[in-house]
Specification:
Layout lengths: L1 E6 L9 E6 L8 H11 L18 E4 L2 E4 L10 E3 L5 E3 L2 E2 L2 H4 L16 H11 L6 H5 L1 H5 L5 H11 L8 H7 L10 H5 L6 H15 L5 H13 L17 E2 L7 E6 L2 H5 L2 H13 L2 E4 L9 H5 L6 H13 L5 E4 L2 H9 L6 E4 H8 L10 E4 L3 H7 L3 H8 L3 E2 L14 H4 L1 H18 L3 E4 L2 H10 L4 E3 H16 L1
Helix pairs in contact: 3-6, 6-7, 6-9, 7-9, 12-22, 15-17, 16-18
The structure holds iron/sulfur cluster (2 copies) and FE2/S2 (inorganic) cluster.
Length: 480
């Protein structure tokens, strides 16, 4: 088996390099077995391990770019093994102490109080951490903010739930950067113990902060606005809903019927993009039903821990689609789609516009002389598992050049309003990656990403459906 392994001895060199090794291992061998085989030939290779069974967390490395436990990951011929994206001590061994020092210990109360069964059940999913630091190595907020990081937040919530702890965990979490997290979910997706840090720790800590009157003033304004208008974005121009009929028939035979949940951003900030999507759907045989009484999905309230008004929004939205007998509700905002799929119990199916268009099969558009890059919205990629469909649609129209890294643009989780410096710094980092591709424009599929990247990038930003529509317009011009 051939393996590329990162080597760096900071005592002797500044830059690391990859070295290729060829070793014999049994079929089904794990990455750790391969490292052992390499070490037998080259004892200068440094790496960590202890239990060999996924229990101690010491063997975490990047395998083909993804953080993994070496002892639990099957080895692959041609794989690349690198250290986690943390300061390197030597070869595959990284500095763990600074991040581990952020994980708070329990501070016992004078009089011990045993946790109740329900408290134990709530604590359990947060207690499984093996301190591998995979989550810390991928957290974008930690790169630009004073943020203690995902596993420190996990521990903060774990202790906040424990009646034996006397720690004052909510003010502590706020001081440690609770409101700088973008809820991008990168930490959860790499965690070998599947700990849902954004939903089970960050958003829960923010909800506890809300109960203690510690919600950020800018986030309180959002709740006020949604109570007054049903929307979390102020009206500054004619909305999408004011420009469309309730039922939009396709140009040809009906291939599918969907209800359209438009979301606050496409309704009020980027209505033209939603109108572009309607043109593409009409052209491809989709009948679109748009209940005009729909309101905000509640995502900004969930992400910022303000849950009191959420059931009102959920009830109104479910009612407006079920009362029309709609089986499939389409979203085109990644945040709304993720919220309807993961935070609602709906009697209808929810699908993103990229799923709908891919499933029905689209009319071929004309090709445009463009090279574009694609930014994965966190709440589409990780929140809904949608990666390939937008790429397939984009490739029908233009050449796609991928960015080197998939990373949050900084718009989510209430950071754009609550921690604007962090949000801006993340957008500028994203723009650096966009620039490196040399693409003519950046395509995305979420109004928050499109608006946020558009604010900080010189490269034009477009939605997938706008790109498709441009392809159709060129086709029509050619025919004319
Ligand atoms: S959700 Fe994203 S920003 Fe928040 S802690 Fe996890 S990785 Fe960091
Ligand atoms: S939360 Fe998960 S990824 Fe983070 S240190 Fe713990 S086990 Fe590792
Ligand atoms: S060696 Fe302990 S988790 Fe891999």
């Amino acid at each position: 088996m051939g393996v590329r392994v990162f080597r760096l001895n900071p005592a002797r060199e500044k830059e690391g390099k990859f070295r290729t090794y060829h070793v014999e291992v049994q079929e089904g061998a794990r990455v750790l077995h391969v490292l052992h085989a390499i070490h037998a030939e080259d004892p200068t290779l440094s790496y960590r391990y202890c239990c060999g069974t996924g229990q101690c967390g010491s063997c975490a490395v990047r395998v083909d770019g993804e953080p993994k436990l070496a002892c639990m990951t099957e080895a692959r011929d041609g794989m690349t093994v690198e250290p986690l994206n943390l300061p390197v001590r030597k070869d595959l061994v990284v500095e763990m102490e600074p991040a581990l020092a952020q994980i708070a210990p329990l501070l016992p109360k004078g009089q011990a109080e045993c946790p109740a069964q329900e408290q134990i059940a709530a604590i359990k999913p947060l207690r499984d951490c093996i301190e591998c630091l995979a989550c810390v190595s991928v957290c974008p907020a930690m790169e630009v903010a004073e943020f203690a990081g995902p596993t420190a937040m996990r521990q903060g919530m774990r202790l906040a739930l424990d009646p034996r702890d006397s720690g004052g965990r909510i003010p502590e979490a706020i001081r440690a950067g609770l409101f700088t997290c973008t809820t991008c979910q990168a930490c959860w997706k790499v965690c070998p113990k599947d700990i849902q840090i954004p939903g089970k720790a960050i958003e829960k800590l923010r909800a506890l902060a809300n109960r203690e009157g510690l919600t950020l003033p800018r986030h309180l304004e959002i709740v006020q606005l949604v109570k007054e208008t049903g929307r979390t974005v102020p009206r500054t121009e004619t909305s999408f809903l004011e420009q469309v009929d309730e039922v939009i028939e396709p140009a040809g035979p009906v291939k599918a019927t969907v209800g359209f949940f438009v979301g606050c951003m496409y309704n009020l900030r980027l209505p033209k993009t939603a109108l572009d999507a309607i043109e593409v759907l009409k052209r491809n045989g989709v009948r679109v039903i748009i209940p005009h009484e729909q309101v905000c999905c509640g995502s900004p309230l969930i992400r910022t821990g303000q849950l009191e008004y959420l059931p009102t929004l959920q009830g109104k939205n479910i009612e407006c689609f079920t009362s029309r007998g709609i089986d499939t509700v389409m979203t085109m905002c990644a945040g709304c789609g993720s919220t309807l799929k993961n935070d609602y119990r709906t009697p209808f199916t929810v699908k993103d516009v990229n799923e709908i268009l891919t499933e029905i099969g689209i009319e071929p558009p004309a090709r445009l002389p463009l090279t574009v890059t694609y930014h994965d919205p966190c709440h589409l990629l990780r929140g809904q598992g949608i990666r390939d469909q937008p790429r397939a649609l984009i490739r029908r129209v233009a050449d796609l050049k991928e960015m080197a890294v998939v990373k949050c643009c900084g718009a989510g989780g209430g950071t754009r309003s609550g921690a604007p410096d962090v949000s801006r710094a993340l957008a500028l980092k994203r723009d650096e990656e966009i620039e490196k591709t040399g693409a003519d424009c950046v395509i995305s599929s979420c109004p928050f990403c499109e608006f946020h990247i558009g604010t900080f990038s010189e490269t034009p930003v477009k939605n997938v459906t706008t790109l498709l529509l441009e392809g159709y317009r060129k086709k029509d011009e050619g025919k004319a």
